[in-house]
């Protein structure tokens, strides 16, 4: 998995038939696990800026894995204001996004990731193993890289409205720093909605 071609969902609700799925979202919501977030605050690591104000949020076993987990995750993210943009895996090189906050829903398989940049940096990256049903929320600037994965790995990538991912593989310039500092605040928690832990664990800049 050295190269991934991202498949965008340009008209997700209409083309992928999520509108009917959303009619049954009450059932999906009832099956979502209670908040089990683990805040991870990362510090700058060499050229990797990370985010010293907003922690990474890890939702373990956020959704049951029986049946079509990918579609259920897409429906849930969409309903909570995080429209999905792709299904694939995670890039196998260190990178961050300066134009978007990102939520990764692990719909199938498992992967070992490193967050925050290389292990040999001044603030060594943190390794995590993500499994089907887990959700990982990455604030803008957070370094991430796939170290290994199972052959059946399937990840859902979603972002707040109007935000689209870029790929940054070097220290942010002034323009990127400005983008990250002024990026609009997400409207709600991607897993638990407006009353979810994101609003508590991510301090509102206002």
CATH superfamily: Jelly Rolls
CATH topology: Jelly Rolls
Rg, nearest Å: 16 Å
CATH architectural arrangement? Sandwich
Q: What can be said about the biggest beta sheet?
A: 5 strands, antiparallel
Strand order of the largest sheet: 1-6-3-8-2
Brief descriptors of the model:
206 residues; alpha+beta; Jelly Rolls; 5-stranded antiparallel β-sheet; 3-stranded antiparallel β-sheet; 6 helices; 20% helix; globular; disordered N terminus
Structure description:
It is a single chain. By secondary structure, the chain is α+β, with helices and mostly antiparallel strands. It has a single domain (12-188), classed as Jelly Rolls, CATH 2.60.120.10. Helices cover 20% and strands 20% of the residues. It is built from six helices and eight strands, in the order αααβαβββββββαα. The strands form two sheets. The chain has a five-stranded antiparallel sheet with strand order 1-6-3-8-2, with helices on one face. Strands 5-4-7 form a three-stranded antiparallel sheet, with no helix packed on it.
């Amino acid at each position: 998995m050295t190269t991934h071609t991202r498949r965008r969902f340009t008209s997700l609700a209409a083309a992928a038939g999520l509108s009917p799925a959303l009619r049954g979202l009450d059932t999906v919501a009832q099956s979502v696990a209670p908040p089990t977030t683990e805040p991870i605050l990362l510090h700058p690591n060499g050229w990797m800026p990370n985010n010293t104000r907003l922690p990474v949020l890890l939702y373990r076993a956020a959704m049951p894995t029986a049946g079509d987990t990918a579609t259920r995750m897409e429906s849930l993210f969409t309903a909570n204001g995080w429209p999905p943009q792709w299904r694939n895996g995670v890039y196998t090189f260190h990178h961050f996004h300066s134009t978007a906050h990102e939520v990764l829903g692990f719909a199938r398989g498992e992967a070992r990731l490193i967050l925050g940049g290389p292990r040999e940096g001044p603030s060594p990256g943190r390794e995590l193993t993500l499994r089907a049903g887990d959700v990982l929320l990455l604030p803008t600037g957070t370094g991430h890289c796939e170290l290994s994965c199972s052959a059946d790995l399937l990840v859902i990538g979603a972002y707040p409205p109007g935000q689209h991912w870029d790929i940054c593989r070097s220290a942010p310039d002034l323009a990127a720093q400005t983008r990250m500092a002024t990026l609009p605040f997400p409207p709600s928690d991607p897993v638990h909605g407006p009353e979810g832990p994101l609003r508590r664990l991510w301090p509102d800049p206002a």
